[in-house]
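Researcher: Next sequence.
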Amino acid sequence: MGKYVIAGNWKMNKTPAEAKALIEEIKPLVKDATCDVVVGVPFVDLSVALEATAGTNIGVAAQNCHWAKSGAFTGEISAEMLKEMGVGYVILGHSERRTYFGDTDVTVQQRTRAALDAGLTVILCVGEYLEQREQGVTGEICAMQTKIALGGVSKEELSRIIIAYEPVWAIGTGRTATAEQANEVCALIRNTVADLYDVEAAAALTIQYGGSMNAANAAELLAQSDVDGGLIGGASLKAPDFATIVAAAK
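Model: Next structure:
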């Protein structure tokens, strides 16, 4: 199965000074981790995060990037800018970007292409809204988002893709998909990738679960056969909780 990756998505939280303090608190707690550990910080925190994690086992992710290399896109950041800074990962297609900032399946694909071209590893988010789950189209939605986002991605490049299944109805709501629900959709995503590429590529793919994964439920979720890690929101802002989740990813 895919390599275990636990990534924190800090969202719009922590000033640079606060970010440095949190990373310093996290570092000794995760230094012996058997999985990959990533912190996804706001743009203004990237420099201090890279400095604070230098020489450690913690990677740094940006929370978005633009699809163009440069141009008249006020307020945006290119994948090349991130790469030159030393950033290794970028979170793309998060439901909050899709819901509040107009990201579509097409622009997520464009951002993914740009990030791969710049040499970044992409944490690609897919997931359904509550009404879509109730309508019974979770599988279709997640398969479609996955297929479109991976358009033009080669099998070799797939090694720099991590897919995070994030049911929108479970993000920041305190509601969590059951371990069985999470595993079912992660397996469906893996099967979709197998259809696009092959079984070998699908087996090697890391598929995370995101959506109110926390210190209390992480072990059960991570024990599922098709869940290879987590994209952690609120719990990633508390060093002991984040460390507990990292420890559960064995």
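Model: The radius of gyration is 17 Å. The first helix runs from residue 16 to 30.
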